[in-house]
């Protein structure tokens, strides 16, 4: 009799526990945040049922109901294509076409900047050579001395100047506008040291003559290059503001217009 009573008591306790557990509402969490839909999640035949629209829209998907077809369509959001970028080896190879410039007025040192080669023309910023009569440009162990008066083009307004210089590897220009947040790299010689920085394309500026980007450029990098994830030159480093976090480059299309003047 005692055993039978004990069994009945245990069954009753189990039933009460199960009822209490089942009565507890099921909470819904999406990406670490609790969501409280109008229709609460339910347990049906040991399967947890949750509102499809609530979950889909919380994850950025579009949900549509077709009454005629009695059909629900869920469309996931498109993910941006991630750019693979360039390896350090590839960047260093491109850097072989980016030289360091030392500008002089006679024997007096004026400034230091960067320059690069496109179609046999050495390109840099006009302000790097402002007030100079000649300059030395070095690519690794090779260097050349050029006179500022021998420039094949000079445009103070867009801050570009170019000189004929053969025998050095040339870089390729890309004159199309990058997409917002495209990966970019800035290559130059700030503080007399070859440097590579990585960032993103931000926007057009300077009345359509400059790009703004986030690849940090310091003094001495002026005249260097800003390239895309394919290694193509999209701009010429020209200026940095706000501690180097707002960086500007003359657009490649502007440079191409100047190169067209070279005979």
UniProtKB/TrEMBL annotation:
Name this protein carries in UniProt: Copper amine oxidase-like N-terminal domain-containing protein
Molecular function GO labels: serine-type peptidase activity
Keyword terms of this UniProt record: Hydrolase, Protease, Serine protease, Signal
Domain Copper amine oxidase-like N-terminal: 30-81
Signal peptide stretch: 1-22
Domain of life from the UniProt record: Bacteria
Protein's UniProt keywords contain Protease: yes
Pfam family, any one: Trypsin_2
Gene3D superfamilies for the chain: 2.40.10.120, Copper amine oxidase-like, N-terminal domain
């Amino acid at each position: 009799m005692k055993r039978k009573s004990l069994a009945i008591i245990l069954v009753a306790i189990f039933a009460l526990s199960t009822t209490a557990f089942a009565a507890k509402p099921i909470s819904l969490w999406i990406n670490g945040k609790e969501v409280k839909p109008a229709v609460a999640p339910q347990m049906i035949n040991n399967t947890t049922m949750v509102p499809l629209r609530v979950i889909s829209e919380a994850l950025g998907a579009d949900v549509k109901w077709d009454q005629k077809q009695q059909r629900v369509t869920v469309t996931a959001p498109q993910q941006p294509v991630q750019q693979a970028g360039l390896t350090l080896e590839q960047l260093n190879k491109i850097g072989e076409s980016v030289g360091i410039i030392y500008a002089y007025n006679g024997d007096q040192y004026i400034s230091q900047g960067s320059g690069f080669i496109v179609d046999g023309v050495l390109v840099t910023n006009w302000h790097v050579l402002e007030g100079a009569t000649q300059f030395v440009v070095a690519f690794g162990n090779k260097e050349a001395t050029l006179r500022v008066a021998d420039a094949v083009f000079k445009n103070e307004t867009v801050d570009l100047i170019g000189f004929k210089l053969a025998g050095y590897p040339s870089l390729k220009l890309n004159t199309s506008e990058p997409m917002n947040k495209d990966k970019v790299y800035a290559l130059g010689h700030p503080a007399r040291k070859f440097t590579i920085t990585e960032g993103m394309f931000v926007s057009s500026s300077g009345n359509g003559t400059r790009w703004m980007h986030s690849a940090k450029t310091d003094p001495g990098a002026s005249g260097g290059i800003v390239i895309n994830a394919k290694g193509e030159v999209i701009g010429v480093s020209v200026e940095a503001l706000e501690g180097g976090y707002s960086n500007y480059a003359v657009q490649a299309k502007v440079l191409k217009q100047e190169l067209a003047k070279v005979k």
